[in-house]
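Changelog entry: the Phosphatidate cytidylyltransferase, mitochondrial record was regenerated in this release. Current contents:
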Amino acid sequence: MALQALQSSGVAFRKILSHFPEELSLAFAYGSGVYRQVGPSSDQKNAMLDFVFTVDDPIAWHSKNLNKNWNHYSFLKVLGPKFITAVQNNYGAGVYYNPLITCDGRLIKYGVISTSILIEDLLNWNNLYIAGRLQKPASLAVSQEFTGFSL
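Regenerated structure tokens:
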């Protein structure tokens, strides 16, 4: 049985991605906001959209995103992009999440991970967090710069 992505989700995803800096090597959406779910609470229209953004230079990306989307960040924003990237890279699964963001009328959360940490996790399963997200159905938007690696 093939999973069906929600109708017009590709257009919605592109509109949401347009709110962020363009330097993404990979972006993917996953979860109940993307794929139809069965069960009594299967209201996909109001389900949170979950994204992961892969970036080659997290400091530069966070710097640009802070300029565009200052209100997305926790108090760490006052410490700057270098500190945010240090937290991202050195704690947990190597992902920095901005949760509970309203974007184009939808509730989203997005995690940012460096390309090198993503590849390392996919190849060696260092912590399985992002690899685990990709074991489930995911809707991929691959940049042309993301070469030499296939999913």
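The mean pLDDT is 82.
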